[in-house]
Amino acid sequence: MMKTDLLIVNGPNLNMLGTREPGIYGADTLEDIEAACRQLCEQMGLTMRWFQSNIEGEMVTAIQESAFETSPHPARGLIINGAAYTHTSIALYDAVQLFQGPSIEIHLSNTHAREAFRKQSFMSLVCDGIIQGFGRDSYLLAIRGISGKLAAQG
Ligand code: DQA
Question: How much distance in Å is there from the Cα of 154 to the middle of ligand 1?
């Protein structure tokens, strides 16, 4: 099975970017961000699988399906914007825990500068790194960051 280099998982309400609170999340749509990620991946010679769901269990399944060499869509690295499930989901925590490659938690906004309930992150406990507060550049910085980890793995 050909391995994808990166699985990028996006959680609930991120499909509404562009119209959703642009003062916090910026004017880009999720499609704009996907296109920018694809362009950067192409430049860097990386393959990428993009996933968005508003449903927690579908996100878990997407991660499971890429978690192992023997999975249907194995991926070498994981970038996850769990959106609101970041702060609530033990199921996503468990799924990221079983993912075998490096993982990076990302957010468009700086969650520590917002409501207190956003300070808790189940993703931070299991991801190798965190990038947040840079809008769509959080995604691009994460691709650059994880590529170093993938290269180190050989
Ligand atoms: C978010 C931050 C979360 O707290 C929020 O629930 C989101 C988006 C971000 O990218 O800034 O939906 O993950």
Answer: 32
Q: Is this structure's pTM higher than 0.85?
A: yes
Q: To test the ligand 1 pocket, which listed residue (19, 29, 81) has its Cβ within 8 A of the most ligand atoms?
A: 81
- The order of strands in the sheet holding 48-52 is 48-52, 4-10, 75-81, 103-107, 129-132
How far, in Å, from the CA of 13 to the mean position of ligand 1?
9
Domains and CATH numbers, the chain: 4-153 (3.40.50.9100)
Per residue in 114-146, pLDDT (tens digit) is 999 999 999 999 999 999 999 999 999 999 999
Euclidean distance between CA atoms 66 and 132, whole angstroms: 24
In the chain, the amino acid numbered 42 is E
Amino acid residing at 129? G
Site of tokens 């468990």: 94
